[in-house]
Amino acid sequence: MQLLDGKLVSQKTKDELKKQTEALILDGKRPPHLAAVLVGNNGASETYVANKVKSCKEVGFESTLLRLDEQTTETDLIALVKKLNEDKNIDGILVQLPLPKQIDEFNIINTISPEKDVDGFHPVNTGKMLLADDRAFLPATPFGIMLLLEHYNITTRGKRVVVVGRSNIVGRPISILMSQQRNFGDATVTLCHSKTTNLQEITCQADILISAIGNPDIIGADMVKDGAVVIDVGIVRVKDDSAKLGYKIKGDVKFDEVALKSSYITPVPGGVGPMTIAALMMNTMKAYKQTFAK
């Protein structure tokens, strides 16, 4: 078994981005600029946004963190997003999800300019991704998974891939990317979900198993075939009074038992999570370059 080390690959990606940023500055240009909007004080969201801002600093990007009250209205948030759309010094915009119940997430996603949509959630970018348009901003987590597969040179062409989870953020887009005619694609993909019957029978056929359902320890050794590549996207805080922070981070996969059957496996934490942030940084640089290419 070999560990798919997201921390290692993420750092290498960020080191390369840092070099690109330094070259831009030496050429008299401003660095890329990411604006992050955080509504409310969700603990997990606070952590995610803090990591994104930290990564911007690591690679030399400028970042702006805009904090809004939990009671912020949809109208006020849309007005802020439109203001960021018009700001020529901001290249990428992300609005951290989930949002409070009074705000429709789809309305916010649709308001973000597709050219600054570094999360890759806007319908325009979804359409471009579906058409394999290289100008698309890919959703950060699926993009991060593709970067991880590329780094470890894992063969995907002709392989059987099973994706468990059909969210618009991970499951659906990664199933599309891996089925496309592209590097580290060309796979035969099965997309499973909560209504799938005989799930175990299907996952046991997977050469590459990607689990993205956020259900701790749902994937055991009996659901994985010998030698499979296992990518665990799940990341959930599970209450644990014995832990220093009062919780432990768990993935979808029972790591200790599944690792014994896998050829490659991602840890949680330290696997897909760091790659998501690295992919977000890459999207921000891409947005910056596409703006200046006009």
CATH superfamily of the largest domain: NAD(P)-binding Rossmann-like Domain
Oligomeric nature of the chains:
single chain
Quote the distance from N terminus to C terminus: 46 Å
Q: Mind telling me which CATH architecture of the largest domain this is?
A: 3-Layer(aba) Sandwich
General shape: globular
The CATH class of the largest domain, by name, is Alpha Beta
Mean pLDDT metric: 96
Features:
single chain; Rossmann fold; 6-stranded parallel beta sheet; alpha/beta; 10 helices; 11 strands; 294 residues
Written account of the structure:
With 294 residues, the protein is an alpha/beta fold. It folds into two domains: 28-113, Leucine Dehydrogenase, chain A, domain 1 (Rossmann fold); 140-273, Rossmann fold, CATH 3.40.50. The chain has helices at residues 6-26, 43-59, 74-86, 105-111, 123-130, 140-151, 171-179, 199-203, 255-258, 272-292; strands at residues 2-3, 33-39, 62-68, 92-95, 160-164, 188-192, 208-211, 228-232, 236-239, 247-250, 262-265. Strand 9 (236-239) and strand 10 (247-250) form a beta hairpin. Helix 2 packs across helix 10 and helix 6 (140-151) crosses helix 7. 43% of the residues are buried.
